[in-house]
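Residues determine shape. Next comes a sample protein:
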Amino acid sequence: MALHDRLAARLRPLHALMLAVFLAGAGTRLMDGARPLFAVLVGLFWLVIFQFTVGNVWGYAVEYRNAGGDWGDAAFVAPFAIAFLAGATLYTVSRNLGAAASAAFWVFVAATAVTAVVVNLLVGYREGDPDADGSQLAE
């Protein structure tokens, strides 16, 4: 099997995206005149940040789905909407894309935590309420 065929068989879309992120990070530094080793380190840093961010967001989505939720639920969409608004607002004020992206991510984390607590409290109260499923009404 040729090298190209082996790479194509192993290179999944996520790997291609990760390679693009690395090359973009390293390429921006090389175009700025940085040394190649520094450019590689910056590319790796971009890749780590990308994996951390995408991994956490994907983990949130998968765990929400595994818990029986639907990706169209308001409880699932709310942290994304709040994070988007926070990032867009900060970018509008500061014109700093890095700061806006960082703020959006951390607002997403905080909104996810608040949403999880609120949903768990509501579900806990519903499960403890004998009239929640209507079983007491039939008696």
